[in-house]
């Protein structure tokens, strides 16, 4: 913008305030204007019509006695039809807006607790905008938008809030972990019980098969070899099993060795001991 040879240029999105002998005369729109300065006409100043933004940081206290810093962003602009009011009535527009923001925030936030301040920041911004609109419209300014862009509690309060949140999350995690351990132990116990049940069925079937095999062997041997008794057949079966056991122990290099009487004269004693043990077990069950 400049003034050359009684002409003045007003840039786009701006207006110029013209005075004659120190008195307001007219608002000049963007373009080139003739200025007969020899008749006392001059440019008092320029006023931008662009959207402007002012960030205001206001420290205040909540209802539960927590100090917070509220950052409000005010977007405003001068009204072209009221350019003279905007130019003459306010000497410090940004300072005036800041004072109104302080007044509204410090009247609204102390009525709310800290959590409610975060939840109702839109209501706080709306209250600031309404108050500014009423006040600044008389001075030729329009409030386009008011935003609460940040709420900063005291550092100690912020740390305590984080610790509370972390403790709550850890408590939930501990409950979930304990529940998982409980389910795992239940499933492990159910699997162990099922395994033992099936093992018991297998042992019972194995013993039943052994008993059936011995019975069939005794009956077949008694029929095919006249004069033999069931006792003779059982002794022979026990001796056969004895030697099979000795063979398995000797064939396996990793098995534990068990030393038992194995002389020819001791075979009858082994058979008698096994037979007596079986008879005593049957007598106990009866």
Task: Provide structural commentary.
It is built from seven helices and nine strands; from the N terminus they run ββββββββααααβααα. Strands 1-2-5 form a three-stranded antiparallel β-sheet, with no helix packed on it. The chain is of the alpha+beta class. The mean pLDDT is 80. The chain is rod-shaped and about 160 Å long.
| Contiguous helical run count | 7
Order of helices and strands: EEEEEEEEHHHHEHHH
Poorly predicted regions: none
Task: Strand order, main sheet: write it out.
Answer: 1-2-5
Question: What is the helix content?
Answer: 40-55%
The count of DSSP E runs of length 2 or more, i.e. the number of strands, is 9
How far the N terminus sits from the C terminus, by CA atoms, comes to: 123 Å
Structural class: alpha+beta
Using the alpha-carbon principal axes, give the shape: rod-shaped
Radius of gyration: 52 Å
Strand portion, in percent? Answer: 15-25%
Mean pLDDT over all positions: 80
Q: For the report, how would you describe the main beta sheet?
A: 3 strands, antiparallel
């Amino acid at each position: 913008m400049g003034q050359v040879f009684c002409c003045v240029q007003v840039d786009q999105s701006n207006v110029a305030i013209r005075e004659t002998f120190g008195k307001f005369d007219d608002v000049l729109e963007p373009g080139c204007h003739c200025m007969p300065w020899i008749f006392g006409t001059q440019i008092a100043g320029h006023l931008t019509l662009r959207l402007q933004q002012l960030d205001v940081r206001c420290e205040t206290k909540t209802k539960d006695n927590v100090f917070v810093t509220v950052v409000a962003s005010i977007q405003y602009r001068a009204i072209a039809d009221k350019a003279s009011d905007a130019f003459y009535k306010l000497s410090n527009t940004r300072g005036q807006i800041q004072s109104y923001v302080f007044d509204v925030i410090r009247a609204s936030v102390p009525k709310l607790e800290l959590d409610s301040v975060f939840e109702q920041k839109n209501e706080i911004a709306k209250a600031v905008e309404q108050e500014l609109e009423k006040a600044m419209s008389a001075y030729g300014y329009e409030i386009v938008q008011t935003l609460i862009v940040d709420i900063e509690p005291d550092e100690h309060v912020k740390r305590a809030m984080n610790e509370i949140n972390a403790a709550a999350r850890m408590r939930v995690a501990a409950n979930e972990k304990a529940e998982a351990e409980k389910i795992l132990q239940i499933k492990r116990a159910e699997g162990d019980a099922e395994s033992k049940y099936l093992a018991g069925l297998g042992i019972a079937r194995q013993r039943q098969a052994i008993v059936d095999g011995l019975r069939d062997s005794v009956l077949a041997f008694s029929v095919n070899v006249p004069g033999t008794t069931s006792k003779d057949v059982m002794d022979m079966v026990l001796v056969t099993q004895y030697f099979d056991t000795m063979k398995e122990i000797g064939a396996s290099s990793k098995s534990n060795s068990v030393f038992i009487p194995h002389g020819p004269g001791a075979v009858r004693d082994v058979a008698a001991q096994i037979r007596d043990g079986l008879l005593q077990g049957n007598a106990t069950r009866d």
